[in-house]
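quick one
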Amino acid sequence: MSNFFISIDPLSFLADPLSHEFMRRALMVSALVGAVCGLLSCYMTLKGWALMGDAVSHAVMPGVVVAYALGLPFSIGAFVFGVGSVALIGFVKQKSRIKEDTVIGLVFTGFFALGLVLVSKIKSNIDLMHILFGSPLGTSQSDVNQTLIISFIVVMILLVFGKDLMLYCFDPTHARSIGINTGLLHYLLLSVLSLTAVVGLQTVGIILVVAMLITPGATAYLLTDRFDRMTILAVLSSVISSILGVYISYWSDIETGGSIVLVQTFIFLIAFLFAPRYGILKNQSKIS
Amino acid sequence: MIIKNNSTGPYRIEADQVCVDYNGTVALYDASLKVKPGSICGLVGMNGAGKSTFFKALMGFVRPSRGKIKINGVPVSKAQGDQAVAYVPQSEGIDCSFPVSVWDVVMMGLYGSMNFLRIPRESDRRAVWHALERVDLIDLRKRPIGTLSGGQRKRTFLARAIAQRASVLLLDEPFSGVDVPTEKLMSELFLQFRQEGRTILISTHDLSHVRDFCDLVVLINKTVLAYGETSEVFTSENLNMTFGGLPPDPLFGSTSLDKDNFSNE
Ligand SMILES: Nc1ncnc2c1ncn2[C@@H]1O[C@H](COP(=O)(O)OP(=O)(O)O)[C@@H](O)[C@H]1O
Ligand SMILES: [Mg+2]
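structure w/ magnesium ion:
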């Protein structure tokens, strides 16, 4: 990454990549995935489901492999294994005295290991690196279609059930006492998580999906005390990170998933330092 | 003040021989109770007597191994769907740094009667405003709940119950950890609720409240020891039985056992 940023004028920095079909696709998919993950990340961070997000995103791995082997859309395999892992976590937790975070760690690493073994055993043209690290620059039209469909479903669910899910995260007892079916909401949120992990996987890969699912929410949480603003900020920061990440990846020839997540982390750091009310610099000046 | 009254029977709360156990350990057995509209019933017992368990059973949050429960003459889940029950747990068990304001929390009391997308109507906003006025929190309506004191938070949850217009209020230890002005405000509210025809079940281990405004008292220690009009039930003999033989201190309105008893909360 030599002197790109000096030698390229801003206009061509933005416009050049758009002349390539694969870049237009990558930008669109990444931005869309960013928006969906950003929206969901608010619920994940508030519900305290960061580890759950990590677990589900890893657990979908064997599903992806099996789906490829059977010639199914990989989102279906991923969804089945994502939801399956969650059900298994619930089951083991209920039936044993092991603490929840231990169970989560145990189940998802088991699933992930199964996925690795399957990749090495099943003859297929799956590129392990693509699953692990994502490949938005190599997105095919059918991938785009899948992402579009899943994103639409997820966004619709989050829009229709948004208030109920927020109440469920905040005060499940009250939700139940006014006759809301919280069991249903629990599984709805987990299903949405599985679906989102599937689309996120395409952009940043299994390993980094969890960043997409928590960092935007965490950033937004530092910036506001209102839930509606938090969702807007999370989606904004997530979309900006995706687009900026893809551009930076293009111009400096670095790995795209890593680039997107690094931009997210950078935005988080800025919020962490300078957030008007909750930034650490603000706190220090209050004390002194 | 209109409250949701879908009552089909003469009783608002009916529990018949309710038993609850936690993995085989009995927490409550043969607990029966009937409360009429427009009355305040005090649920009195020491720590671990099963008061919170009773509330959870009434709300259907723990499944009784035996016994029947009805609210407004219908099963609890039906009553909950009718928005007829409001429950304020002993500790709200909420994340206090959640990004919602006092206003938002009170509005949550109305979700059950809103449309599918939970979009507030003008009447909902008026109900929230009115509820906040009654608990004297109107000036704090925009505050994030994380910035409230314990007493202010309790009042917020009471306002939510008011906004819900529930006819049955289940309040688990509403007075624990609140200051004197809040306590006064709450007592006055409860008396108003009674006048509006609501039924309130309040658990407490502070006997002075019971004398002040409960029409009925239930003394419990894993089961209902005594139940009836306050004047009849509040005998020192009954109280001795309830508090495990230790006489309650009439001046401080609680028992010595209460303070050093290990608590599960
Ligand atoms: N979730 C639970 N699991 C197991 N035992 C419990 C649980 N909740 C309460 N208990 C037990 O049930 C008994 C009654 O508790 P509780 O209803 O909280 O009493 P109170 O509210 O009167 O202080 C206590 O002995 C307590 O240890
Ligand atoms: Mg209790």
